[in-house]
Hints:
Blueprint: H1 2-8, H2 16-42, H3 54-72
Amino acid sequence: MELALATQVLPDPDNPAKDLGILKIADNLPVSIVAAVASALLAIGAASAADQHFAALFLAGALSAIVGGFVILLVKGAR
């Protein structure tokens, strides 16, 4: 659904490949970043490999959701 909506507001509908490529990077980049950062967050305060700090991971997720919500307020609209 979101891809169909995104194709309706592309800046250059005659040449969509570049814009769709940027859209896919924006879709996949957060997943890659979270995978890299999550292991570091789980290791905070860990004395052994079995000891993981899920509170730090969930706190970081909650903070990023709040920041993302405020960033969305800056979006004025689509063309």
